[in-house]
């Protein structure tokens, strides 16, 4: 049955070359922790992606309850934390996942740097990776405001003050992010939109480019 | 790929009708030495690593629920702000003399700009063919310096922050409405030693917090009134009323300032 469905799709779309290419590629010995334990440093990138997947899933569930306006945002997070079944786990995973993404990505960056893997021909993949790093920091910054509690609000006030101190574009950047002069209702909806739509969209595009380049170039050779 | 005259396609598509690639994995002899196929051998290992990682992740989540402070109050200008921990190094940088005040631009834009700019352009700053860290001492040295700086700045920021005060200023305060017509309220008002520390409104004073702060049961409240909390400076045996009055008061406190229903 499954075979027939597969053949039916394959006849029309010729999907075998695509997925066999992903499945049948070779994993060299020097990145395999089963052969060299020290190769566990090559796991950091994969684990970062694993946490990103968890972040996307837990974030999708959070938006089932979260309301991005200044009257209800805090109440909805409080309700999610204290009343919703397993809400505390879902929110906890999203909260800790944000930190774990940063930690794993930092370790992945160090691994790539110290193995010199960013050198020719992988310069572009390094640049895309650093851009992913920036997107992640942006996700961390915008997500911090969303619970609309004291620390969220005042961390954002300080963050936007720092953005404002940049020469030339500072005032513009602050107005763009805050949605006006004051940090309030408009800021919250803007950060919500950035956190849930703009940055994840950019992230998925960059991740696609990152993985395509890895697949095309293969992993860097042993030192 | 086969191209040319005589090709047959599926309908009017560009998918060839014949000679489709058979869906069979590459032979294991095509993986020389200790090279492994990604599917299923290596992916299984990755999943095992992922499973172990997930267990640790879930333990962390269960042991430490995500924090939530009281609702944002933009008028509370006394609140000392703190960003999430991974921004602390950038935040700490702004506390040094030549990176703050008139020099904020240096701490907020110039130094982080140079650091992250160099990170982004690393492949063009370190162009030599050598990959081993020891063979490119400048790149390695700069990265080690950057990592050490990040760790140091984060450490300094954590060490200089008043965590106890931070927890207090953000704590969720229960809105307690005290029923002032209750008998228990009158009992409380007659106890000078209670009022002395917990205040005339029962909501706390200079020396002690609100009596409703913790969710104690009636029995626990009675125990605390009689025996005090020596660790926190509450003396024992200050209650001067009868045992019956003690019980009424304890019930009132355990019920968050309301007479329990049914009485």
UniProtKB/TrEMBL annotation, chain A:
<dbReference type="InterPro" id="IPR027387">
    <property type="entry name" value="Cytb/b6-like_sf"/>
</dbReference>
<dbReference type="GO" id="GO:0022904">
    <property type="term" value="P:respiratory electron transport chain"/>
</dbReference>
<keyword id="KW-0249">Electron transport</keyword>
<dbReference type="GO" id="GO:0009055">
    <property type="term" value="F:electron transfer activity"/>
</dbReference>
<keyword id="KW-0813">Transport</keyword>
<feature type="transmembrane region" description="Helical">
    <location>
        <begin position="152"/>
        <end position="179"/>
    </location>
</feature>
<feature type="transmembrane region" description="Helical">
    <location>
        <begin position="39"/>
        <end position="67"/>
    </location>
</feature>
<keyword id="KW-0408">Iron</keyword>
<feature type="transmembrane region" description="Helical">
    <location>
        <begin position="126"/>
        <end position="146"/>
    </location>
</feature>
<dbReference type="GO" id="GO:0005886">
    <property type="term" value="C:plasma membrane"/>
</dbReference>
<dbReference type="GO" id="GO:0046872">
    <property type="term" value="F:metal ion binding"/>
</dbReference>
<dbReference type="InterPro" id="IPR005797">
    <property type="entry name" value="Cyt_b/b6_N"/>
</dbReference>
<keyword id="KW-0472">Membrane</keyword>
<protein>
    <recommendedName>
        <fullName>Menaquinol:cytochrome c reductase cytochrome b subunit</fullName>
    </recommendedName>
</protein>
<dbReference type="InterPro" id="IPR016174">
    <property type="entry name" value="Di-haem_cyt_TM"/>
</dbReference>
<keyword id="KW-0479">Metal-binding</keyword>
<feature type="transmembrane region" description="Helical">
    <location>
        <begin position="96"/>
        <end position="114"/>
    </location>
</feature>
<feature type="transmembrane region" description="Helical">
    <location>
        <begin position="191"/>
        <end position="214"/>
    </location>
</feature>
<keyword id="KW-0349">Heme</keyword>
<dbReference type="Pfam" id="PF00033">
    <property type="entry name" value="Cytochrome_B"/>
</dbReference>
<dbReference type="GO" id="GO:0016491">
    <property type="term" value="F:oxidoreductase activity"/>
</dbReference>
<keyword id="KW-1133">Transmembrane helix</keyword>
Automatic annotation (TrEMBL), chain B:
<dbReference type="Pfam" id="PF13442">
    <property type="entry name" value="Cytochrome_CBB3"/>
</dbReference>
<dbReference type="GO" id="GO:0005506">
    <property type="term" value="F:iron ion binding"/>
</dbReference>
<dbReference type="GO" id="GO:0009055">
    <property type="term" value="F:electron transfer activity"/>
</dbReference>
<comment type="similarity">
    <text>Belongs to the cytochrome b family.</text>
</comment>
<dbReference type="InterPro" id="IPR036909">
    <property type="entry name" value="Cyt_c-like_dom_sf"/>
</dbReference>
<feature type="binding site" description="covalent">
    <location>
        <position position="197"/>
    </location>
    <ligand>
        <name>heme c</name>
    </ligand>
</feature>
<dbReference type="InterPro" id="IPR036150">
    <property type="entry name" value="Cyt_b/b6_C_sf"/>
</dbReference>
<dbReference type="InterPro" id="IPR012049">
    <property type="entry name" value="MenaQ_cyt_c_Rdtase_cyt_b/c-su"/>
</dbReference>
<dbReference type="GO" id="GO:0020037">
    <property type="term" value="F:heme binding"/>
</dbReference>
<keyword id="KW-0812">Transmembrane</keyword>
<dbReference type="InterPro" id="IPR009056">
    <property type="entry name" value="Cyt_c-like_dom"/>
</dbReference>
<feature type="transmembrane region" description="Helical">
    <location>
        <begin position="137"/>
        <end position="155"/>
    </location>
</feature>
<comment type="subunit">
    <text>The main subunits of the menaquinol:cytochrome c complex are a Rieske-type iron-sulfur protein (QcrA), a cytochrome b (QcrB) and a cytochrome c (QcrC).</text>
</comment>
<dbReference type="GO" id="GO:0016020">
    <property type="term" value="C:membrane"/>
</dbReference>
<keyword id="KW-0408">Iron</keyword>
<dbReference type="InterPro" id="IPR027387">
    <property type="entry name" value="Cytb/b6-like_sf"/>
</dbReference>
<dbReference type="Pfam" id="PF00032">
    <property type="entry name" value="Cytochrom_B_C"/>
</dbReference>
<dbReference type="InterPro" id="IPR051811">
    <property type="entry name" value="Cytochrome_c550/c551-like"/>
</dbReference>
<feature type="binding site" description="covalent">
    <location>
        <position position="194"/>
    </location>
    <ligand>
        <name>heme c</name>
    </ligand>
</feature>
<feature type="domain" description="Cytochrome b/b6 C-terminal region profile">
    <location>
        <begin position="28"/>
        <end position="155"/>
    </location>
</feature>
<feature type="domain" description="Cytochrome c">
    <location>
        <begin position="179"/>
        <end position="257"/>
    </location>
</feature>
<keyword id="KW-0479">Metal-binding</keyword>
């Amino acid at each position: 049955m499954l075979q027939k469905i597969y053949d039916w799709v394959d006849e029309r779309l010729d999907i075998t070359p695509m997925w066999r290419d992903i499945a049948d590629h070779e994993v060299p010995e020097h990145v395999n922790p089963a052969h060299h334990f020290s190769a566990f440093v090559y796991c950091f990138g994969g684990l970062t992606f694993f946490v990103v997947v968890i972040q996307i899933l837990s974030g999708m569930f959070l938006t089932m309850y979260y309301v991005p306006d200044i009257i209800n945002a805090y109440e909805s997070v409080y309700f999610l934390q204290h009343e919703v079944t397993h809400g505390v786990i879902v929110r906890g995973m999203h909260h800790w996942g944000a930190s774990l993404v940063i930690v794993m990505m930092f370790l992945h960056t160090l691994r790539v740097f110290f193995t010199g893997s960013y050198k020719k021909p992988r310069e572009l993949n390094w640049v895309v990776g650093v851009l992913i790093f920036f997107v992640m920091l942006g996700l961390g910054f915008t997500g911090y405001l969303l619970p609309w509690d004291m620390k969220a609000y005042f961390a954002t006030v300080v963050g936007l003050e720092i953005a404002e101190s940049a020469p030339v574009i500072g005032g513009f950047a602050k107005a763009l992010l805050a949605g006006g002069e004051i940090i309030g209702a408009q800021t919250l909806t803007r950060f919500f939109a950035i956190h849930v739509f703009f940055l994840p969209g950019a992230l998925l595009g960059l991740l696609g480019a990152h993985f395509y380049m890895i697949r095309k170039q293969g992993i860097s050779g042993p030192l | 790929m086969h191209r040319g005259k005589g090709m047959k396609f599926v309908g009017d598509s560009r998918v060839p009708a014949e000679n489709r690639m058979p869906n069979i994995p590459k032979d294991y002899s095509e993986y020389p030495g200790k090279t492994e196929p990604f599917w299923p051998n290596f992916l299984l290992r990755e999943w095992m690593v992922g499973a172990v990682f997930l267990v640790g992740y879930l333990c962390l989540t269960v042991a430490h629920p995500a924090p939530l402070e009281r609702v944002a109050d933009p008028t509370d200008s006394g609140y000392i702000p703190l960003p999430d921990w991974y921004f602390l190094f950038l935040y700490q940088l702004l506390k040094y003399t030549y990176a703050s005040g008139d020099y904020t631009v240096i701490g907020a834009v110039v130094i982080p700009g140079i650091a992250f700019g160099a990170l982004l352009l690393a492949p063009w700053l370190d162009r030599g063919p050598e990959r081993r860290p020891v063979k490119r001492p400048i790149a390695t040295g700069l990265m080690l310096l950057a990592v050490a700086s990040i760790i140091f700045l984060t450490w300094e920021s954590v060490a200089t922050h008043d965590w106890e005060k931070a927890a207090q200023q953000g704590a969720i305060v229960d809105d307690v409405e005290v029923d002032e017509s209750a008998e228990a309220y009158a009992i409380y008002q007659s106890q000078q030693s209670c009022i002395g520390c917990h205040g005339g409104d029962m909501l706390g004073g200079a020396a002690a917090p609100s009596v409703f702060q913790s969710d104690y049961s009636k029995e626990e409240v009675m125990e605390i009134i009689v025996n005090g909390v020596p660790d926190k400076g509450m003396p024992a045996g200050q209650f001067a009323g009868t045992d019956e009055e003690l019980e009424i008061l304890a019930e009132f406190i355990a019920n968050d300032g309301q007479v329990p229903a049914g009485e």
